[in-house]
């Protein structure tokens, strides 16, 4: 069975909304840790699930690599990809995420990259390893990820294995799409209808959006599934979208969402904005007072207000964070005053992603969003496991010069532990053979 039929609808249903106990919970204005302008670049730590489809497609898909599927003692089924490449000694420090000691007289230095996928997390690592002495390469990577021991492992020999894995990665990355509301508040506006009534954007708003994201045309766009009309542009002609450190972020800009002239309650706009867990409020004018109570009956858990100010004729943004009382404090990065420059993009998008990560820790959202992602991902892994296992045309004994005992008579997932060591030994031999053959090929050119 090669086809997958998995429901990818992760929207919170109306029934789930009725279960949610704290729609009316109070909001807290979180104190800014530093209310002075930030003049130094800070590389804030991103705390969010790792999307890997771009990594696999760019660094593995078009190069020789090996894919594996198997089972871990604790985490269950997993998929892994391993790639080896020769590197110069002077380049090691430039490209490694981490390293292990290598003897100076060892000329066979290889950079190995690995992508490991479990039901709950994705991992991306790179190491320098002496392939002549290494027979447990994948085991080393798994230990570095602090995962449990390998219970069973096999090589993916499906003729379209690479394509199926990249489809799997893209499917799961799409579930991580961040949908962020964005509205404007002008002076004397104190309810959602007034804020959603505008159909145009000011230059100040465009300047702000252009530094953190890019305008895109929705028609026929296949980068994401944000539930906007991509065929007829019925909802919007354009919207704003960005990819930051492989994370996709879609902005629902209130003034760009279509609204019928006879719709004085802006139902379409409210439907999009009120169902975002995080909403950006861009403030224009003097003496603007914001209260989350301006918005009624929505799922929004955090509002981030952005107010442009000028200091010594230079543009800055004052960032304030309103969160529901049952949401953990947001401290990294904090609110404050930040200069309008390229470093602001790194700060603000990190703030968005880290905030979304904290929101999803809340019991209700963890149950209805995160656990559903885990379930769908595991179902997909099981489907791939069945597809890869049933496809058996690749004789491993040929690759290992008949020194490998190709014993793959398995009927279920409870395989013997002896299989693990056999496949890891073969893996080391296979990479060593590949490296030696490649070196000979280069020397003959």
Automatic annotation (TrEMBL):
Q: Cite a single Pfam family from the UniProt record.
A: Rap_GAP
Which GO terms fall under molecular function for this chain's record?
GTPase activator activity
Keywords for the protein's UniProt record, in alphabetical order: GTPase activation
Q: Does the keyword Oxidoreductase feature in the UniProt annotation?
A: no
Kindly give the SUPFAM superfamilies that the UniProt entry links to this protein: Rap/Ran-GAP (SSF111347)
GO terms (BP aspect): regulation of small GTPase mediated signal transduction
Q: Does the keyword Cell membrane apply?
A: no
UniProt source species: Rotaria sordida
Q: InterPro entries per the record?
A: Rap/Ran-GAP_sf (IPR035974), Rap/Ran_GAP_dom (IPR000331), Rap1_Ran_GAP (IPR050989)
The residues covered by the Rap-GAP domain are 166-380
**What is the protein name for this chain?**
Rap-GAP domain-containing protein
The root-end lineage is: Eukaryota, Metazoa, Spiralia, Gnathifera, Rotifera
């Amino acid at each position: 069975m090669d086809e997958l039929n998995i429901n990818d609808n992760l929207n919170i249903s109306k029934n789930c909304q009725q279960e949610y106990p704290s729609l009316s919970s109070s909001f807290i204005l979180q104190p800014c840790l530093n209310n002075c302008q930030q003049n130094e670049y800070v590389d804030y730590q991103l705390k969010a699930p790792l999307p890997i489809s771009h990594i696999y497609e760019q660094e593995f898909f078009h190069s020789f690599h090996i894919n594996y599927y198997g089972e871990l003692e604790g985490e269950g089924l997993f998929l892994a990809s391993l790639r080896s490449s020769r590197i110069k000694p002077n380049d090691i420090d430039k490209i490694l995420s981490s390293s292990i000691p290598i003897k100076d007289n060892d000329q066979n230095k290889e950079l190995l990259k690995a992508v490991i996928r479990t039901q709950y997390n994705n991992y991306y690592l790179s190491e320098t390893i002496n392939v002549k002495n290494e027979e447990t390469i994948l085991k080393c990577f798994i230990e570095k990820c602090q995962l449990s021991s390998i219970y069973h492992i096999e090589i993916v020999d499906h003729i379209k294995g690479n394509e199926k894995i990249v489809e799997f990665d893209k499917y799961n990355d799409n579930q991580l799409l961040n949908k962020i509301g964005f509205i404007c508040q002008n002076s004397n506006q104190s309810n959602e209808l007034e804020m959603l009534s505008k159909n145009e954007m000011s230059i100040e708003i465009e300047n702000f959006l252009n530094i953190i994201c890019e305008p895109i045309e929705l028609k026929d766009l296949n980068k994401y599934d944000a539930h906007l009309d991509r065929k007829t542009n019925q909802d919007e002609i354009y919207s704003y979208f960005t990819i930051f450190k492989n994370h996709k972020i879609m902005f629902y800009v209130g003034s760009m969402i279509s609204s019928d002239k006879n719709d004085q309650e802006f139902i379409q706009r409210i439907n999009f904005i009120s169902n975002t867990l995080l909403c950006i409020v861009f403030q224009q004018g003097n003496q603007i007072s914001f209260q989350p109570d301006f918005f009624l009956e929505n799922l929004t858990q955090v509002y981030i207000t952005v107010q442009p100010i000028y200091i010594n004729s230079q543009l800055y943004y004052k960032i304030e964070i309103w969160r529901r009382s049952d949401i953990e404090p947001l401290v990294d990065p904090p609110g404050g005053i930040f200069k309008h420059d390229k470093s602001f993009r790194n700060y603000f998008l990190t703030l968005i992603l880290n905030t979304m990560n904290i929101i999803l820790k809340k019991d209700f959202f963890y149950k209805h969003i995160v656990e559903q992602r885990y379930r769908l991902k595991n179902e997909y892994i099981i489907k791939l496991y069945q597809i890869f296992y049933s496809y058996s045309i690749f004789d491993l004994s040929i690759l290992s010069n008949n020194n490998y005992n190709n014993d793959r008579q398995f009927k279920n997932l409870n395989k013997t532990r002896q299989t693990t060591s056999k496949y890891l030994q073969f893996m080391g031999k296979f990479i060593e053979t590949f490296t030696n053959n490649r070196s000979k090929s280069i020397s003959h050119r």
